[in-house]
Amino acid sequence: MRSPLLKIVMTFYGIIGSTLASVLVVVALVNGVSGLWPLLGAAAVGFVIGLPVSYFVAKAMIGD
């Protein structure tokens, strides 16, 4: 049985992870990065940072 917190975290992760990834790609582009791998790295960092952020947001909403 899955906990309600996990369902909320995964829902938020889809939104927060993609938003952070796109923001970091735009920041990289504004700073003059033009290679494929640095831009993919910026997107990957956004997705990795999105998981703990979505966990803390979901935990704050539930009130635990």
Cα-atom radius of gyration: 14 Å
Beta-strand segment tally: 0
Assembly form of the protein: single chain
Strand content: under 5%
Sheet with most strands = none
State the shape.
elongated
Distance between the termini: 19 Å
Mean pLDDT: 93
The low-confidence runs, each spanning 5 or more residues with pLDDT under 50, are none
| Helix content, binned percent | over 70%
Helix and strand content put the structural class at mainly alpha
Helix-strand string: HH
Q: How many H/I helices?
A: 2
Organism: Aliiroseovarius zhejiangensis
Keywords: Membrane, Transmembrane, Transmembrane helix
Transmembrane segments: 12-30, 36-58
Protein name: CTP synthetase
Task: Give the helix/strand layout.
Blueprint: H1 4-30, H2 36-62
Transmembrane segments: 12-30, 36-58
Organism: Aliiroseovarius zhejiangensis
Keywords: Membrane, Transmembrane, Transmembrane helix
Brief summary:
By secondary structure, the protein is mainly α. The chain has two helices and no strands.
Describe the protein in words.
The protein is mainly alpha-helical and about 60 residues long. Helices cover about 85% and strands about 0% of the residues. The chain contains 2 helices and no strands. Helix 1 runs antiparallel to helix 2. It is elongated, with a radius of gyration of 14 Å. The two termini are about 20 Å apart. It comes from Aliiroseovarius zhejiangensis. Keywords: Membrane, Transmembrane, Transmembrane helix. This is CTP synthetase.
